[in-house]
Amino acid sequence: MSSELTIRAATAADVEDILALIRELAEYERAPNEVTATPADLLRDGFGQNPRFHVLLACEGNRVAAFAFYFYAYSTWRAQPTLYLEDLFVRPAYRRRGLGVMLMRRLAEEAMKTGCGRFQWQVLDWNEPAVRFYETLGAKILREWWTVRVEGDAIAKLAASRD
């Protein structure tokens, strides 16, 4: 018999579970070797005085089944905060039970509560199940926008460049 499904805010005690979910998501997204986060990184950045991110966990009893990892950005055009969903992942054994919808609803509630004008995220173009899922929630896929990124040593190189 399965336990009740619940959504709760993560605490520092959940760091190992959060990192495990991050690694499982990276595996699903075909990039398992790109995760460099450590428990210490997550503790420092998510559970200190000024957290840089927040996590919601979906649980069945005391087992962590899914997570939503998010933070706030700011929309200059709307002059309002944006709730940015970095990662949403449901472990395969728990899929098709409504956990993704539960997490997305809770995030939408959080966006409303914190005065966000946008709730935004990205999806890989090959991840058709996720694209379909998001569209059923009323999300609009903005195909005209491209992700642009500078990372690692390229950041230092850019910072040190001079005209």
Q: What structural keywords apply?
A:
single chain, alpha+beta, Aminopeptidase, about 35% helix
Outline the structure in words.
With 163 residues, this protein is of the alpha+beta class. It has one domain (5-160): Gcn5-related N-acetyltransferase (GNAT) (Aminopeptidase, 3-Layer(aba) Sandwich), CATH 3.40.630.30. 33% of the residues lie in helices and 25% in strands. The chain contains five helices and five strands. It has helices spanning 15-28, 39-46, 99-113, 128-136, 153-160; strands spanning 5-9, 54-60, 63-75, 80-90, 118-121. Strands 1-2-3-4-5 form a five-stranded mixed sheet. A hairpin with a 4-residue loop joins strand 3 (63-75) and strand 4 (80-90). The longest helix is centred in the middle third of the chain and has 15 residues, at 99-113.
How far is the first residue's CA from the last residue's CA? 66 Å
- Unreliable runs, pLDDT <50, ≥5 residues? none
CATH architectural designation: 3-Layer(aba) Sandwich
Query: What integer is the average pLDDT?
Result: 95
What is the element string, with H for helices and E for strands? EHHEEEHEHH
Mind telling me the CATH class? Alpha Beta
**Strand-residue proportion:** 15-25%
Number of domains: 1
Q: What's the Cα radius of gyration?
A: 17 Å
The biggest beta sheet reads: 5 strands, mixed
Helix content: 25-40%
Instruction: Say what oligomer this is.
Output: single chain
Strand order of the largest sheet: 1-2-3-4-5
Could you tell me the CATH topology label. Aminopeptidase
| Number of strand elements | 5
Helical segment tally? 5
What structural class do helix, strand and pairing data support?
Answer: alpha+beta
